[in-house]
Amino acid sequence: MAEFEKEVSVxxxxxxxxxxxxxxxxxxxxxxxxxxxxxxxxNRSPIVLVETKLGLESWCVKFLLPSLHRKLLLYRQxxxxxxxxxxVDVTVTLLLLNPDFTTAWNIRKELLQCGVLNPxxxxxxxxxxxxxxxxxxxxxxxRRWVLLQILQQCYAQKDCRKEQGEGYLCHTEATGxxxxxxxxxxxxxxxxxxxxxxxAGRYPSNYNAWSHRIWVLQHIAxxxxxxxxxxxxxxxxxxxxxVSDHSGFHYRQFLLKAxxxxxxxxPESTATATLRQQGITTSGExxxxxxxxxxxxxxxxxKEWQPGVVTVPRLFDLEVxxxxxxxxxxxxxETLWCHRRQVVFLWYQWRREHPNFPGNTNEDDALxxxxxxxxxxxxxxxxxxxxxxxxxxxxxxxxxxxxxxxxATLVKRGLLMSCSLALHAEHSYVSSLLDNCCNLEQRRFAxxxxxxxxxxxxx
Amino acid sequence: xxxSCNFLSxxxxxxxxxxxKDVVIKPDAPSALILDKHADYIAAYGSxxxxxxxxxxxxxxxxGIYWGLTVMDLMSQLPRMNCEEITEFIQSCQxxxxxxxxxxxxxxxxxxxLSAVQILALYDNVQAVDVDKxxxxxxTLQQEDGSFSGDKWGEIDTRFSFCAVATLALLGKLDxxxxxxxxxxxxxxxxxxxxxxxxPGSESHAGQIYCCTGFLSLTGQxxxxxxxxxxxxxxxxxxxxxxLNGRPEKLPDVCYSWWVLASLKIIGRIHWxxxxxxxxxxxxxQDEETGGFADRPGDMVDPFHTLFGVxxxxxxxEEQVKPVxxxxxxxxxxxxxxxxxxxxxx
Lengths: 459, 346
What we know:
Helices cover 59% and strands 4% of the residues of chain A. By secondary structure, chain A is mostly helical.
C-alpha cells in the first residue's frame, strides 16, 4: 500500500510539473480536454499537446484529483505547507479538472492580492477552464472578481495621470467624447465578449455566459451608446444562427432596453446618435460582422460611423422586422415568439411613458397611414411583398395595404415607423400568419401570442 | 448549493417537422411511487465514499447532506441518518467569521450556511452552531444597495439574497438586516416578463424566480409581484411530456419542475398547470432498480433530483410523504415547530 501511495505521489508531481511546463513553453494553448484512455499504454506522461490543444489521458485523473484536492485542503487547514509556486501549479491542475472548487479559486485570489499572480494570467486560466466547462459558475464568478481588480487599477492609473497633469492618454480625452473607452478597457471589453461568445457557442442558452456579458457591459461600457449599438448589430448574425437560444435573445432585449434608456436621456443629442453603416441596417440587408473590426470606441471605428439616425421607434421597428423574418424562416421556435413578446412589451411600455417623444405620432393617424382600420384591427388589404424585398406572403405585417414596395420603403423610412408596432398591427400580423400556417408548433405559439397580446399587454 | 444541476443530456422529438425539445415517456416507465427504494438509496449514498466521486462533489457537501436529510425526513426516515456525526461535521465547518463552509477546509459561503442551518432546523438543534456569529456573518455580507454577496469576495446574486433571509428567518433574526433595502434590490432584478434574474438586467430563470418569490414571501412583500404575468411565464414551462423546464426551449427536468411548481404555489397559481401530467413525468424519472430520481426518465439518479422529485410530488398532494413548504423546501411540520409561516398568495 505504501509503495502504491508513493507511486501515486510521484505520478502526481510529474503530471503537475508537465502541465506547468506545457503552459510555459506554449503560451498559446487555447483548449483543454480529457482523452478517453482507461489504462496507461506506455511509460510516458499522460499529457498530450497537439498544436494549441492540451489533453490529459483519462486514466490519471482518478489519481490526480483526490491527491491534489487533499494536498490543497491540508494546506488550507494549516496542516501542510506549500510554497507559492507549488500553490500556483496545484490550483491550475485542480481547476482545469474541477473548476467549481471555489476554495481553489479563492486561494488564487489571495495570491493575486499579494502580487504573486498576474490578473491577466488568471483570466487566461478561466478561459481555458471554460473550454471544457462552459457553464462553470465559479469560473465566471472568479472572472468577475479579477476584472474588478483590473478595472480598479485602470481607474487608479487614470486618476494618477490626471493629478500629474499629464493629460489622460486614453482616447476619452483625446476626442473629447465620454462615449469612448480607454485602450485598455476597450481591449478588455473585446476579450470578454470573445470569451462569452465562445462559451455561448459551446453550450446552448448558457445563462452564466450571457449574464456575464451583461455584467461586463454594465461595468466597462456603462451608458455607452456606441458599444451597445455595436453589440446589437454584431449579435444579429449570432442569434440568426441560434434561433433557440433564449439567452442570446434576452441579451438583445437587454441591449434594446439600455439603448432606449440612453436615447431618452437626451433626445436632442443622443436620439440622433449616428448609426454605423455596417451595424444596424435595414431589415433586408443582413448585418455583417466584420472579423477584423477594431476594438470598441477606438478612433478607427469612429470613422466607420456614417450619418444616419437611430431613434427609439426605429430601433423597435427594426427589431420587430428582424423577429418577423426569423419567425417566418424558422417556424415553431418558442424563443422567437418570446422575443417578440418582450420587444412589443418594451415598446408598449415606452410609448405609454413617452407620449410626446418625437416620432410618437398620433396613433389614429399613424394607423390610417399604414392602411390599418382601427375598428377591426385588420389590414385593409394585403400584399405579397414586404418592404425589404423578401417575399413574406402573409407574414408581412408593417406595410400591408401599401401597393407599391417603393412607397412602402418611403413610409417605412419615414415618420410613421412607430405605428408599425401598434397593437393592431400585431394582431393583424398574427392573424394573417395563422391564416397561412399549417405548422402545428408555429400555430401553438402564434395562438399563445395572440392570447398574450389580448390579456397581458392591456394590463 | 441551489441549482447545481449539471447533468447534461439532450433529446429532441420531431413533431410535424419541427424539433421540440422534450422527452417521450415510455409506456413501461415507472408510474407508482417506490418510497422504500428511495430511502434505501439515500441511506446507502452517504456511506459509500468513492474517493474520486467524493472529491469531485466535496465543494458542495453541506448542500448534499441537506438534500439527503430533507428527502429522508419527507419520507419519515430521518432516524436512519447519523444525527450526531452530521452535527459534529457542521460544527467543524463553522469558521471564525461565523460563516459555514461546504466541508472542512473549504471556505465559508452563504449557500452552505443556509444548508447547514436547514439541517440543524430539521434536527431542532440550531444552537449547535454559534448563532450570533452566523447572524453577524450575514450582516457583513449585505451591500449598500441592499444586495448580498455570497462570501467575502463580493459576488452578487439574488440567490444570495434568498440564502440570507432564509437563514435569518430560520433563526428568527430577520430584523438584523436592512430588509427594505434588500427588497428593493430583489425587485430591481424583476424583468418585464414578470420573472427574475440573478442581477438587474439578467434573464429570467426558474431557479432565480424561486429564490426571488421565496425571498419576497419571507419578507412579506409578495404583493409586489405581478402574479398573473409571472404565473403565465411559469405555466408555459410545462411541456407536452408534463415535465417543466427552467427557460424556453430547454429540456424538462425534475429539479426545474420543483422550482417552477414551488414558485407557482408561492404566488397562488399552482392550479394553472396540468398536475396529473407533471406527476406522471416525475414518477417516470424514478429508477426502479436502484431507487432515486434522475433529471429525466432513464438518466442516472442522484440525491439532488431525488429530493426535488419527492418534494414536487408532495406539493402535488402525494399523501405518502409529509407536506413540504414551498419556500424553504423543508417539511411543514419543522417550520411549525419553529413558528415560521412564510406568506403565500391565494
